[in-house]
Amino acid sequence: MLDITTSRRGALALLLAGTALSAGAASAEEITLGALRLTSHSPTYIALERGYFADEGLEVELSFFESSAAMAVGVAGGDLDYGVTSITGGLLNLAQKGAVKVIGGALAEDPSVPGALILASNKAFEAGLTEPSQLSGKSFGITTAGSSFHYMLSRIAEKEGFAASDMQMKPLQKVGAIVGALSSGQIDAWVIQPSIAKRLIDEGAAHEIGRFSDYDPSYQVTAIFTSTGIAEGEREQTEAFLRALSKGVADYNAAFVDKTASEDDVSELTGIVHKYVSVDVPDDRFAKDMSEGSMRINEGLALSTTSVQAQMDWMQAEGLVSDEITLEMLVDSSYVDTM
């Protein structure tokens, strides 16, 4: 015989549980996060898929971009809440206008870990371009003036004793376009993170002629940033975002950089990243890219302000940004652990 009292209690319990779930969903803060389909953005995908953002009460929507410059504009314009980008002239100009703030560090050169590689096209290599000292007069791929690629070229040129202006810089806007230009011999050289560089080398599309860490061993490649309005007005949300992303960083470094994670963990994390990055690449090739081509991302999203200042000084010396821009205009030090 059906116990009506028990049934009513069960129905009430289900109703209360459903109400609690609805309230929890409604209370989650929705944020939009900019991303590039690169392995350097792996912590974002790990934090999302492993529920670290959700654990902090954040519901994250990803918005994908082809370049860091476009992402910076998206944050400044309010289309994005947070982003991960290189320190570019565009970002500094937006900071001077009071639109954006850097709140953490991300990808970085580490002399103990293989970093960005300097590549020569097959055509240029066969013509004698076999080391960075021979880059003067050659063509070099960048996205835009003032980009990370432009900066890296300048550091190589400085140490090798020639001016970056002695090279033919080819602004191709997108990483994919530079890959195509290098592979087809339309440009002579490029410098890029190892996950992309090693694949080009293995496929016979380019040759390694140097390592960027020989020119700037502490280069802060990318940083975490947000709008000034969010940095100043949404502290709890921003701190929650950084905590969640930091957990993704820790998982990423353990699996792919420090090699301290279990095989099962590495396999799981590789699968997570592959859902978002190089989806057309076979699983075994992508696993090799992650294992052999992952650069360090700063634990706790610490930021090398020394490197950021050096990049700013270079842009100012090149006339790419105003001399009036200061580190304080760019970085919100209340969020950042410096190194």
Automatic annotation (TrEMBL):
The keyword Signal applies. It is found in: Periplasm. SUPFAM superfamilies: Periplasmic binding protein-like II. The keyword Signal applies. Pfam families: NMT1 (PF09084). Its main location: periplasm. Residues 39-251 form the SsuA/THI5-like domain. InterPro entries: SsuA/THI5 (IPR015168). Residues 1-25 form the signal peptide. Keywords: Signal. PANTHER family: ALIPHATIC SULFONATES-BINDING PROTEIN-RELATED, TAURINE-BINDING PERIPLASMIC PROTEIN. Belongs to the bacterial solute-binding protein SsuA/TauA family. This is ABC transporter substrate-binding protein. It comes from Salipiger mangrovisoli.
